[in-house]
């Protein structure tokens, strides 16, 4: 029997860790989501096409994903705290060097590569340590932590617009980089979890309600020893492969709307002051969607994978309808629908990953999942930019994002059916064999 001290806290100092992760999400992903405010400024400064300028965001996204496996390994070898602090320094370096704006290639290397690596080294350990500190309340804790990006994006939209108008896009990058140094402070607050809790966290999944598919994971937990290297065997598991394909398709779409929302509003003749408010609306409803979905998922009424499939479908629908907007009011309404369903999706997609692979493999699976998903983040924005250049209309990018998300839903459905089939097979195998002999003693003699 496990002692009380060996249980994951599911509260206590864990909430300090959640708040720290909340701040990290704001200083990293929120900045990335509002980078569309710099899109037109940088495009006009270097006189480049939309497809060329979008590569800055694309490089950031792909390095963010590619760095996740490295960040996960470093978390095991050192601590989550050390990796987060390193990430904060890298993010600052990328934005500060971007201030010089020497060329488009320079922007790829600084605000693209360095910032992306810093985000990866900050985001990955922050979301990972939250999952270790919580078990029964994991969905809610992850939702609160991830909500940091939309809470900060709500403020960053008008704030960044003001910085650009006052100091130019170069000066704004330098100031933002200084603000991002606060990631290091957040990292200091991420106290390593006692090893006894880490071991228990890898076994406590059997206590999770069966609605999240936890019952099948206890047999996967063969060793309490933490993985020091990546478990590449995961790519042989059909469940993980299906979820990774879903991640690729979803990543192709996730960063397209924030990137082209501002240029689309400009093309509709909407004033700059109103345009920045769209990002604030997006962040506000995103925040509400995450908290609401995290609360609902914590009730364990619906399987998280079913909930995720539903939110992805609704988000795809809202993206396909968004290009129908022809003025600020209609654009704000459709943006609100998209932002809300985006928030519900992000709130639970990491929780679903933990359900698919189990906590014993979570750290390794998270890094590997981000690595595989990077292909979608790398291809998505440039592909959307190319489609926009060909069509001559920013609406085309939203149609592309919506269609890709709709396709990703199919892989979630396949994954769910595969899990259900395996669960049914497991129940049949574990069902006790009924004896046809009148006496138990005769049944024993028969098998002897």
TrEMBL record:
Keywords (A to Z) from UniProt: Membrane, Transmembrane, Transmembrane helix
UniProt entry tagged with the keyword Transport: no
Main localization, broad class: membrane
Bilayer topology annotation: Multi-pass membrane protein
GO CC, alphabetical: membrane
A Pfam family that the UniProt record links to this protein: MFS_1
Transmembrane segments: 12-35, 55-76, 83-107, 113-133, 140-160, 172-190, 240-262, 274-293, 305-325, 331-353, 365-384, 396-415
Ranges for domain Major facilitator superfamily (MFS) profile: 14-420
Cell compartment(s), UniProt: Membrane
A molecular function GO annotation: monocarboxylic acid transmembrane transporter activity
This protein's name: MOT2 protein
Organism (species): Copsychus sechellarum
């Amino acid at each position: 029997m496990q002692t009380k001290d060996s249980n994951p806290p599911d509260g206590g100092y864990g909430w300090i860790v959640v708040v720290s992760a909340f701040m990290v999400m704001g200083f990293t992903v929120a900045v990335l989501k509002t980078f569309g405010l710099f899109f037109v400024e940088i495009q006009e400064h270097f006189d480049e096409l939309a497809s060329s300028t979008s590569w800055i965001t694309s490089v950031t996204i792909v390095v963010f994903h590619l760095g996740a496996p490295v960040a996960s390994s470093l978390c095991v070898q050192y601590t989550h705290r050390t990796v987060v602090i390193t990430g904060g320094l890298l993010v600052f370096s990328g934005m500060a060097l971007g201030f010089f704006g020497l060329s488009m290639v320079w922007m790829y290397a600084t605000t693209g590569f360095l910032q992306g690596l810093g985000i990866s080294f900050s985001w990955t350990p922050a979301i990972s340590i939250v999952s270790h500190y919580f078990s029964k309340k994991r969905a809610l804790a992850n939702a609160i932590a991830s909500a940091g990006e939309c809470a900060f994006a709500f403020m960053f939209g008008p704030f960044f617009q003001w910085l650009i108008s006052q100091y130019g896009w170069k000066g704004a990058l330098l100031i933002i980089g200084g603000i991002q140094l606060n990631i290091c402070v957040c990292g200091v607050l991420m106290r390593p979890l006692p090893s006894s809790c880490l071991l228990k966290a890898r076994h406590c999944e059997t206590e999770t309600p069966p609605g999240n598919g936890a019952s099948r994971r206890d047999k996967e937990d063969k060793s309490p020893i933490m993985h020091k290297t990546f478990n590449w065997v995961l790519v042989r598991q059909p469940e993980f492969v299906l979820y990774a394909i879903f991640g690729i398709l979803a990543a192709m779409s996730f960063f397209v709307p924030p990137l082209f929302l501002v240029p689309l509003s400009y093309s509709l003749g909407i004033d700059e002051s109103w345009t920045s408010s769209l990002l604030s609306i997006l962040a506000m409803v995103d925040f509400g969607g995450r908290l609401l979905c995290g609360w609902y998922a914590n009730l364990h009424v619906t399987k998280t994978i079913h909930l995720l499939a539903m939110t992805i479908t609704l988000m795809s629908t809202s993206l396909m309808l968004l290009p129908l907007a022809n003025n600020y009011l209609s654009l704000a309404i459709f943006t609100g629908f998209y932002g809300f369903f985006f928030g519900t999706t992000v709130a639970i997609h990491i929780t679903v990953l933990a359900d698919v692979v189990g906590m014993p493999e979570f750290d390794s699976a998270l890094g590997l999942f981000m690595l595989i998903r990077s292909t979608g983040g790398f291809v998505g924005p440039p592909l959307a930019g190319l489609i926009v250049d060909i069509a001559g209309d920013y609406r085309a990018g939203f149609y592309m994002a919506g269609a890709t998300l709709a396709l990703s839903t199919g892989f979630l459905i396949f994954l769910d059916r595969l899990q259900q089939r395996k669960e049914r097979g497991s129940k049949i195998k574990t069902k006790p064999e009924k004896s046809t002999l009148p006496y138990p003693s005769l049944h024993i003699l028969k098998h002897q």
